[in-house]
Design brief:
29 strands, disordered N terminus, 5-stranded mixed sheet, mainly beta, 4-stranded antiparallel sheet, binds 2-acetamido-2-deoxy-beta-D-glucopyranose, 7% helix, Bulb-type_lectin_dom, glycoprotein, 417 residues, 2 helices
Length: 417
């Protein structure tokens, strides 16, 4: 299934755009698209007149973009595949099947966009043969899950508003936590759920739900984790903002900037519906109502390629000659791979964005930490805590947080010439 999942998502989205605004988390019932593969094949169908590859019987579906048409086709009776046909009715040449949604798993009779926004292919028993909920991109809808076994394992940010390819951030489900990564291996946030402190207790899935809390009668959006070997009443959650109205039209998105936000769709006084930003993980706000907030300084790119951050603001541009005013052009020069071609300069009271949520190595001596960085020409600098002798190697510097603690030291490489 995985092999064609991305193509299927792509193709569906191409025509979804033509049918309704894609930004709706849940498609209004009157604008959903549903196609059931049943009834008289000879009516309104062209397979008797026009030849197509493999000589199947088929039913064209409404989505059509010249010269492509989505069809159910079968080459053995009652074993339908959702396929993409290429060719034109007028041409005498044989039409080709250029893509299949469910190769090897035929039986598909229906295609539907459900009211929760899930796009499904159903077999004759009503079971889902394929569903878009299993292939999220950067967004989870209410009822949609990440799963530790079998996936989907993560959301991946989009690169930019104009470039819809995988970006550098991912939101990942792991047996013991939910975590945010920059470039797959640099963790800049993770959940801390006390329910998971016991050895054999692990997360099974994390599902976006509208959940009433024990204490409040209002609806509450939460990313709720279901556990294996946990107690039946234990559901560790990320609380994502309280609302006074039915908020099942909501979605959680990993943004282009690596931030996690919950948006909800609500009717306003004029009867229009508007998107409201309900929750932002990395936010200037103080903690409130049990919700988790992080300083924006934890976002790897908050202050660009190299900048000093304090209380969610970019406050400086470190150089060997002192800290200058921040600008988005602040950067370091590449140290190169010659071990005698660079030196280090020290910054006091700063941490790398990975320090807060990764253990680093240690205890080690500072000289060992330095020599590790020196021998590794991809290392741009290292971070060292003198109070517990822990060491972090940085392959990208990005945003450094000012922590006001003299036990946190940074050593940045610069070329000597
Ligand atoms: C669906 O219903 C909404 C609200 O009743 C209406 O504004 C919209 O035009 C309808 N869409 C279609 C495709 O009929
Ligand atoms: C999990 O650990 C608890 C306490 O250590 C134990 O009672 C239980 O049997 C374990 N469950 C499994 C499935 O290993
Ligand atoms: C999540 O896990 C729970 C507990 O194993 C299970 O009952 C539930 O069906 C799962 N939900 C999804 C959407 O996979
Ligand atoms: C919230 O809206 C959903 C979808 O429209 C509906 O199924 C659900 O019953 C509503 N819940 C409440 C509490 O009104
Ligand atoms: C390394 O840098 C030193 C000092 O700049 C220089 O003398 C030496 O030739 C360089 N070695 C190489 C292999 O480039
Ligand atoms: C500095 O770090 C030490 C050791 O981790 C800690 O006890 C102390 O509270 C920190 N000081 C500040 C100002 O954060």
């Amino acid at each position: 299934m995985a092999a064609y999942s991305y193509s299927l998502t792509l193709i569906f989205f191409c025509f979804l755009f033509r049918l309704f605004l894609i930004s709706n988390a849940v498609v209004p019932a009157n604008e959903t698209f549903r196609y059931v593969n049943q009834g008289d094949l000879s009516f309104g169908n062209d397979y008797l007149t026009f030849v197509s590859e493999y000589a199947p019987t088929y039913r064209p579906l409404p989505p059509f973009t010249f010269p492509f048409q989505l069809c159910f086709y079968n080459t053995t009776p009652n074993a339908y595949t959702l396929g993409l046909r290429m060719g034109t009715l007028r041409s005498q040449s044989v039409m080709r099947w250029v893509w299949d949604a469910n190769r090897g798993k035929p039986g598909v009779v229906g295609f539907a966009i459900l009211s929760d926004g899930n796009i499904v292919l159903r077999d004759s028993n009503g079971n889902f043969v394929w569903q878009s909920f299993d292939y999220p991109t950067d967004t989870l809808l209410i009822g949609q899950s990440l799963r530790v076994r079998g996936g989907p394992y993560k959301l991946v940010s989009r690169e930019s508003a104009t470039n819809n390819v995988d970006g550098v951030y991912s939101f990942v489900i792991e047996p013991k936590r939910l975590a945010l990564y920059y470039k797959n291996n640099m963790r800049y946030w993770s959940s801390t759920f006390p329910e998971l402190n016991r050895d054999n207790v692990t997360i099974v899935n994390a599902t976006l739900v509208v959940q009433e809390t024990e204490y409040e009668e209002n609806n509450f959006n939460a990313l709720r984790c279901n556990l294996q070997n946990g107690q039946s009443f234990e559901f560790p959650t990320l609380d994502l903002g309280q609302v006074q109205y039915n908020s099942s039209l909501s979605y959680l998105r990993l943004g282009i900037d690596g931030n996690l936000r919950l948006y909800t769709y609500r009717a306003n006084v004029r009867g229009n519906a508007v998107w409201t930003l309900l929750y932002t993980l990395f936010d200037k706000r103080e903690d409130e109502g049990g919700m988790i907030f992080e300083d924006e300084c934890q976002l790897p790119n908050r202050c660009g390629n190299f900048g000093l951050c304090e209380d969610s603001q970019c406050v400086g541009c470190p150089t060997p000659n002192g800290v200058f005013a921040w600008s988005k052009d602040c950067n370091t020069k590449s140290p190169g791979c010659n071990a005698t071609g660079f030196k280090y300069y020290q910054l006091k009271g700063v941490d790398h964005f990975t320090v807060k949520y990764t253990a680093g190595t240690g205890p080690v001596k500072q000289s060992e930490c330095e020599s590790k960085c020196t021998k590794d020409c991809k290392c741009m600098g290292y971070f060292y805590h003198t109070d517990n002798s822990r060491c972090w190697i940085a392959y990208e510097l990005k945003t450094l947080t000012r922590v006001g603690n003299s036990t946190s030291l940074a050593y940045i490489k610069i070329p000597v010439t």
